[in-house]
Design goal:
Pathway: Protein modification; protein glycosylation
Membrane topology: Single-pass type II membrane protein
CATH class: Alpha Beta
Structural class: alpha/beta
CATH superfamily: Spore Coat Polysaccharide Biosynthesis Protein SpsA, Chain A
CATH topology: Spore Coat Polysaccharide Biosynthesis Protein SpsA, Chain A
Number of strands: 10
Radius of gyration: 21 Å
Order of helices and strands: HEHHEHEHEEEEHHEHEEH
Number of domains: 1
Distance between the termini: 62 Å
Protein name: Beta-1,4-N-acetylgalactosaminyltransferase
Number of helices: 9
Organism: Glossina morsitans morsitans (Savannah tsetse fly)
Largest sheet: 8 strands, mixed
Strand content: 15-25%
EC number: 2.4.1.-
Length: 311
């Protein structure tokens, strides 16, 4: 009996070790950039990193495609959604033959979530290689193959999650959820506003930027599904940060003509490769900087001094 028990323990140990090693390969976070540095990764620094990603793509599909799409996913504490999002969207886009790569824009600072600034960072990181971006919520999964993630026309951005199709938001100027934007258009609009800390309104301000640039939002036509079955909304019931503090409500209701790509301040301390169900994605760990004189509402925990301590 003793020998049998020892053999069983040894077998369990070997199996456990194999499982751990396998998991390390499948869900590995492999450093691809400077770790623990305070440098802002410039476009010239991003090129070789993205180049390595492209070389690893199956059949070099990105290098052969007429257009390449960077899927930019603003992210914080949404791992359950990410595990569903990556396999689903990859299969969806594969059926359309869309050359793409998923970039998870992981905000790791202690400020409130800033979706727009994260998208600006993702654009800066990818625009040297990819000629259009998908600003994509992690909790919105397309179900209808009639939704084509194609290169936007000269007219302007292509809004996949149109108001008549989105499960929750139906107002005419809505451009959230999933929006495809050409890099030249995004650059011309100076990206998105950096003033939107917390949840909401950054898309509404971006709509005004689109209009002011002389562009217009296009949307899918002749879609046979409705708001009930075009998308799967997998948002888990987490509380959204809708708090308004200082003069946030007043300022964020106006068109921001001051901030954008040109005023963006951030650090990328590390870049990682990750595999989910055998699908390679890239994680950017992003630290956003907040000017508490301009946007003290980046921290609503109490006082400006508490916000300053996060720098």
């Amino acid at each position: 009996m003793a020998k049998t028990g020892i053999a069983t323990i040894n077998w369990l140990f070997i199996c456990g070790l194999a499982f751990c090693l396998g998991g390390a390969v499948v869900l590995s976070l492999l450093p691809m950039g400077p770790i623990g540095t305070d440098c802002i990764c410039p476009l010239s620094g991003a090129k070789p990193i993205i180049g390595d990603i492209l070389k690893e793509a199956p059949a070099n599909q990105h290098l052969q495609a007429a257009h390449n799409m960077a899927v930019l996913v603003p992210f914080r504490d949404r791992f359950e959604e990410l595990l569903q999002f990556v396999p689903h969207l990859t299969k969806f886009l594969a059926r359309q033959g869309v050359a793409h790569h998923i970039f998870v824009l992981n905000q790791i600072d202690r400020y409130r979530f800033n979706r727009a600034s994260l998208i600006n960072v993702g654009f800066r990181f990818t625009s040297a290689v990819y000629d259009y971006i998908a600003m994509h919520d992690v909790d919105l999964l397309p179900l209808n193959d009639e939704l084509r993630y194609e290169y936007p026309s000269d007219a302007g951005p292509l809004h996949i999650a149109a108001p008549e199709l989105h499960p929750k938001y139906h107002y005419e100027n809505f451009v959230g959820g999933i929006l495809l934007v050409r890099t030249d258009h995004f650059e011309a609009m100076n990206g998105m506003s950096n003033r939107y800390w917390g949840w909401g309104l950054e898309d509404d301000e971006f709509y005004v930027r689109i209009r002011d640039q002389g562009l217009r939002v296009t949307r899918p036509r002749n879609i046979t599904t409705s708001k009930n079955d075009t998308f799967s909304h997998i948002h888990y019931h987490r509380k959204r940060d809708t708090q308004k503090c200082f003069n946030q409500k007043e300022v964020t209701r106006k068109r921001d003509r001051k901030t954008g790509l040109k005023t963006l301040k951030y650090r990328i301390p590390s870049v990682h490769a990750m595999s989910i169900d055998g699908i390679n994605i890239t994680i950017l760990n992003i630290i956003l900087e907040c000017d508490i004189n301009e946007t003290p509402w980046c921290d609503c925990s109490g006082t400006q001094s508490s916000a300053a301590s996060n720098n």
